Amino acid sequence: MAEGFVPVPDGSLYSSEAGDGPALVLMHEGIADSRMWDDQWDTFREQYRTIRFDHRGFGKSTDPHGEFSRAKDAMAVIDHLGIKRAAFLGASMSGAVAVDVALGYPDRVWALILLAAAPHGYDAWSDEAQRLDAEEEKALEAGDIERVIEINAHMWIRGPSRTAADLDSEFLARAIQLLRENTGREGEGPVRWLDPPAVGRLSEIRAPTLVLATEHDFPDMITTSRFLAERIPGAQFEMIAGAAHIPNMERPEEFNQLVLEFLDSVWA
To answer: CA nearest 72: which of 6, 3, 8?
Structure first.
């Protein structure tokens, strides 16, 4: 495995890669960092040149300072590694990044996988989602990190329909630790997204696309996943049973099989 730091304006991004073959970029959720892909690493690198990196404000990457684009950061990573085209797997927050990459750099994307994602500009959020988002923001401003962690664990790790007792204890501990280590690092400056926003441009995506949703996810994310699948031409939709927002950690074998079957079919 090779690892190092990719220079970007006002900072650097930690990245690692392993394996040979077509390039596959794994982009993490907003409650974790690139370690969330540990259960995919050894499997994916057997067939693909697999890359993962920490977004600004996560993991080993620098915190944000000034305006920046996560899509441009993703391109900086593959440019630094000399990769011309890659498949992009974006989870949750990174799903929106992956959509922007597919729209902004269509010739650089050979496949797109969107896990529990929503496109930037989507605004049909439920009252409950908006209430919890406002409560999280208030807790952050007050420095109440434990409350922030509890809100996110309820929404994304356990899912609103389950308790901690319903989950594997090792999975829960790993997920909570990732959440804890990546909470409160927003830094300065806004994130710059595609303009016009991706939400109105999904029909322009030409990369073969797999959209993944999960049975126990926050209901809004199932809705947004279907929204993506219905509007991206030819998109394939799959529902993963028995998992919430991070199925690659909770049900890795099923997740890996779905992703590899899709990528193999596209590459073939």
So the answer is: 8
**Torsion angle (degrees, nearest 10) of CA 228, 31, 260, 40:** 180
Give the model confidence (pLDDT) of 178-225 as tens digits: 999 999 876 656 899 999 999 999 999 999 999 999 999 999 999 999
209 CB-near residues (< 8 Å, 6+ apart):
102, 111, 112, 113, 114, 228, 229, 232, 234, 235, 236
Residues 76 and 201 in one domain: yes
What phi-psi label fits residue 19: left (phi over 0), alpha (psi between -120 and 50 degrees) or beta?
left
Q: How many domains does the structure of the chain reveal?
A: 2
Last residue of a domain, one of 166, 181, 196: 181
176 & 158 share domain = yes
**Same domain as 109, residue 22:** yes
Question: Could you tell me the pTM of the whole model?
Answer: 0.97
- Look up the domain containing 163 and give its range: 127-181
CA distances from 26 to 51, 55, 115 (A): 6, 11, 11
In the chain, where do the E strands start and end?
2-8, 11-18, 23-27, 49-53, 86-91, 109-115, 209-214, 236-240
Helix, strand, coil distribution of the chain in percent, nearest 5 = 45, 20, 35
* Residues belonging to the chain: 268
Whichever domain contains 244, its CATH number is 3.40.50.1820
